[in-house]
Predict the structure.
Amino acid sequence: MGVATAIAATVVSGAIADGKAHKEMRRARNAKNDAKFQMQAARQNRQDIINPYAGVTDLSGLATDLSSQITNPYNNLQVSTAAAEMQAEEADISLANTLDTLEATGASAGGATALAMAALKSKKDVSASIETQEAKNAELRAQGELSAQQQRVQARQNYEQTVITQKSRKEELDAAGEIFQFQAEEARTNQDIQMYQSMYQGFSQQQNQASLARAGAWTAAATGVGNIVAGAVSEGGAWTEGY
């Protein structure tokens, strides 16, 4: 092979190597720029930091003071006088009837008095029984009303406590859900940023390597040409003969 041919072959080989390295450098540069764009976009599109408890409301307004509903049912108890009045009236009637009967039959005054006392005792017993029943009924009604009021107040308190508990639980779960969503989205965004950053660094390294390969290709070609020329000169006249 002549010197010129060898030099041409060396230059062509260097050009081919340079072309391949330049193509790889451009590919790595484009990929690096794309990774940089994606990384910047991921950073710019990161979600705003939120306060998941911003919507929490004060539930104390749901509570109701029920103390005003509690009353003393014994305040309205009254002493029954109907039985006493009936007793007096019936005793008078019984006594009058008895006296009329004794007078008509000509009975003695002692007999009349005994009959009147018996009638009066009977009416007293009836009156006492009625009063006892009325007092007992009033006491039972008062006790029943007191128990009913206590149960109504307790039921109302249970209802309000349930409402407050459920609304508080709903707000806590809403806040926890927002925290979970935020953290999941943030973690995914961070992963994307790390991935694009790693890609950017990798493609930058490939671009640098391709750039060095281009320089190395021409350096190798120049070295090869120099070696060919030096060899031809050392052989004496071979350079001229090569043409």
